Every structure is written in C-alpha cells, then in structure tokens.
Amino acid sequence: MSRVTRNLQLLLRSEGVLAEMRFRLVSHKLALLTGGAMLGLLALGMFNAAGYFALAQSMSPASAALIVGLCDGVLAVILIVVAAFLQTGPEADMVREVRDMAVEELGTELEGVQGKLMDLREGVETMRSNVASFVQSPLDGLLPHLIAPALTALTALAKSRKKAPPEKG
Asked: Which of 51, 85, 131, 169 could form a disulfide linkage to 68, CB 3.0–4.6 angstroms apart?
C-alpha cells in the first residue's frame, strides 16, 4: 500500500501546485486588468480633455470627440488582450505530467485490487454454495469422499481373507 499512499501524496501535491499556479495567474491577470482599468480611467479623463481641446481647434467638436473616444477604446482593447493571453509557464506542464502519471498508476493499482476483490468474492460465493449444499443434504457431500476409502478397505479385507490359510479349530 505504500505505492498507493505515495501516488496519492504525489497527486495531492501536484494538484496543490497546479492550484497555486492557477491562482497566481488569475491574480496577475486581475492585477493587470485592474491596473489597466484604473490607468484607463485616469488617462481617459486627461487625454480626453487634452485631445478634445487640441482637435476641437482644427475640426468640428463632434469629430474631435469621436477621435478621442476611438483612441481610448483601442488602448482598452490592447490591455484586455494582453491580460487574456497570459498563460502558465512550462513548469505547469511538468506538474501536469507528474499528476497524470500518478493518476495512471493509481488506476492500475486499483484495477489490481478490484481483480483481487472479484477473486475473493468468487471464493466466498463458492464456499457459501458448498456450505449451503452441505447443510441441505450432508450425506450427498460426504458420500463421494467416504465411498472410495470404504471400497478400498473392503477390497483389501477380501483379498487378505482369500490369501490367509483357513484356521483349524
């Protein structure tokens, strides 16, 4: 059972490491998204005002507002795309392989245990049926085992009487 225990410990450790890696990835993504959102709000206010005033001098106010809004949207999309493409490193793949190996070994060992349990069940079923048939008719179970030795003994007794000289008395 030490292999099973080792594999279970390995499975739990690898799952813990994977969970920690996922948590770090999610926290980094969240930090980037939060930072991007805060920066976007701050920059939005400043750049919108500055861009609008600069563009409003050379074109209509509506066109200036449209250009400023499009620039803000592009920056927001860039930050979101960068956060979406963050992934775990190659060490996560290694931990997944170790986890998969442990799960595979556990499955193999459990199949062996299942086979032994099935053999044990068949043995118990055979024993139960033998006991049940013996309880129902005890002579049916004993006669085949008693007849052969009894016949052998009777045959030997008959042969010994034929060979022995008759006693005078």
From this structure: 51
The pTM for the full model equals 0.37
Per-residue pLDDT of the chain (169 residues; tens, 9 = 90+): 577 788 778 878 888 888 899 899 999 999 998 998 888 788 778 877 888 888 889 999 888 888 888 888 888 899 899 988 888 778 888 888 888 888 888 888 888 888 888 988 888 888 888 777 777 776 666 677 777 787 888 888 888 877 766 666 5
